Amino acid sequence: MSLVNKNWNHNYLYTNGVRLHYVSEGEGNLMLMLHGFPEFWYSWRHQIIAFSNNYRVVAPDLRGYNYSDQLQSIELYDISELVKDVAGIITNLGYEKCILVGHDWGGAIAWYFANQYPEMVEKLIVLNIPHPAKFMEGLRTPQQLRKSWYIFFFQLPYLPELLFKWNNYKAIESAFINMAIDKSVFSEEDIQAYKKAAAKPGALTAMINYYRCFFRQSFTSEKSWNKLDIPTLMIWGENDTALGKELTNGTEDYVNDLAIKYIPNCSHWVQQEKPDLVNQYIAEFLEISLS
């Protein structure tokens, strides 16, 4: 069922030099949800509804996405800036810490944030995104290199943007429909919402610049990682065509308190394709009831 036209609570905040749009529902302790590519806050629609009875759930558009500021310089998408955005969101909303939830790029930011600001993360929940150290290991294997071909394609100027715009943003639709196992979970209204967000002036370049900046930084510097003491839940749709399940192996080397839930017959879009099961696993991890 499409939730595009639900009466969502929209707001803006200003931090770290950018104006960020966010949707917020509920009251209480902060649950902050970070989306991935090529999405926006809407990818958390099922979770916002499910958890707003227990928390103040906030789902921002990451910088460059949808209604948040579109910044064109590649260096403005350095992971250090993205981490500062998260810290600014938490403090601007009047909190000292949060339950941090991230999927895809949002999950990568969450890993970095938890490593740098562990005191600001009560619990960490990551969906279909490996620990960054495991991802870099994966990129040294032919198997994951083949799956990550698009990262290298995104390094080209202009051409990736043209490809996404071609045929009324058909590539956006294909990213969701072709990767999904249960293609019925994305309504036409859902797909149009994702296309509309990507079509905002400057958005495509901003979104792709995440990958351009990552590529430049990742292959020029080594990152040292602390072993997290934060209770961490990893949820993984097993049929992810972009990120191999084997990338989850060894995550316990970087997390002291780790739980992993694998979901069969489910794609990269795990929280949208299997929302009830994802919500159940998160609720169990947080020791709350959704009823």
From TrEMBL:
Residues 30-275 form the AB hydrolase-1 domain. It comes from the Bacteria. Keywords: Hydrolase. The keyword Hydrolase applies. GO terms for molecular function: hydrolase activity. SUPFAM superfamilies: alpha/beta-Hydrolases. Transmembrane segments: none annotated. PANTHER family: EPOXIDE HYDROLASE (PTHR43329). This is AB hydrolase-1 domain-containing protein. It comes from Crocosphaera subtropica (strain ATCC 51142 / BH68). The lineage of its organism: Bacteria, Bacillati, Cyanobacteriota, Cyanophyceae, Oscillatoriophycideae.
